[in-house]
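batch job 7 of whatever, protein = Putative hydroxypyruvate reductase
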Amino acid sequence: MAPGGRGGRCQELALGAYAADDAWRGCLLAAGTDGEDGPTDAAGAFCDESVRQAARAKGLDPLPYLLSSRSYDFFAQTGGLLKTGPTGTNVMDLVVALG
């Protein structure tokens, strides 16, 4: 994480996947099973066509957010945060990619 960044490892992974290939039209979900991802209120994030459309509509480029570790801010603006609240379990991180 860059100083002043906001997000967690799962949010960074989802944003990195999106930034790496904007042409990919699949869906990726990355989340912690404990309901927490870094020092945020989100369990993680997902990237699907609705997130890509929201980013385009708002003129958001994912790369500056990724480079400054502000993945939470990007997904908060595009509707890609997964918020479950604490789950009471901490098995692992879950990453699912479809497409």
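notes: Strands lie at 27-32, 44-47, 81-82, 93-98.
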